[in-house]
Amino acid sequence: MSHWFSRIFRVVATLIVVAVASLVGYQLWVYYMDAPWTRDGQVTADVVGLTPDVSGLVVEVLATDNQQVKAGDLLFRIDPSRYEIALRQAEAVLASKKAALVLAERNQQRYSQLTDLTVTAEEKQTVDTDAAMATAAVEQATADRDLAALNLERTRVKAPVDGIVTNFTMRKGDYVTTGHPVFALIDSDSFYVDGYFPETKLSRIAVGDRAVVVLLGDDPVVTGRVQSIAGGISSSNVAASSSLLARIDPTFDWVRLAQRVPVRIELDQPLPAGVKLVVGRTASVEILPQTAGTGAKPAP
Q1: Distance separating alpha carbons of residues 265 and 181, to the nearest angstrom
Q2: Residues 6+ apart with CB under 8 A from 148
Q3: DSSP at 202
Q4: How buried is 254 (Cβ within 10 angstroms: 0-12 exposed, 13-18 middle, 19+ buried)?
Q5: Would you give the DSSP letter of residue 244?
Q6: Cα-flanking dihedrals φ and ψ of residue 57, to 5°?
Q7: Which pLDDT tens digit goes with each residue over 89-120?
Q8: Closest CA to 174 of 272, 288, 76
Q9: Mean of the pLDDT values across residues 57-83?
Q10: How many helices (H) and strands (E) does the chain have?
Q11: In 10 A of CB 140, how many CB atoms?
């Protein structure tokens, strides 16, 4: 009898172990294949290309590589000599135009007091035209003076946003050109995470859902919410053609790989202690479904 119960116990125990293993395997399959999570995430931020508005030699460099700066901080100065001269020239021209305007207005006033027996209507029209042209010349000279002053002010290049100076190699004596970026400034108030999710999981992701982000190499968990889902991605199978019609390259893959779609995660502030956000860092992202608009935060 004991031998019989022993055999039944072994069979039941085996069935229980198989059932538990099957359940665990099924849950793992659902998690890896269906749950909205990805290890293909990346820290991103807005990058401002620092571009001088005027050209010239760099005479002073105040910023350093990887320096944290505030909006309005002076980063470097361009030689102002040429622009100071241009401003003085513009001010001299403006003074000359103002003097001409004063003379034209005096002539206009004098002619307006004369009768038609003294001067002709054509002479009065000429004087009025001279006064109007002198007024326009003053306005033009004023604009030129303001532009010269603006160019002089732009020789002092300042940080447009709070951020981190990066890839900074500028040295005193370098020549910078209008419209050509000289280094990058990472906007420190714009950090977010892009999670690249397989298209098969998009149906389980909604704008506003809570999200959990774990940076590679960090233990603290960063929380956030789904800010947006990309509206489109490029296709490597579509190419332009001379007929203006789409040309689709044929594919013969036996296994169709799901496309990756960017999902932007807005991070909660403040960040946990010890978390260092660096553009390009790898992150794992998990979406907590059906939390849109609830404000619920995941348990640590």
Answers
A1: 29
A2: 83, 86, 87, 89, 90, 91
A3: G
A4: exposed
A5: S
A6: -80, 140
A7: 999 999 999 898 888 878 777 767 666 666 67
A8: 76
A9: 95
A10: 3, 16
A11: 13
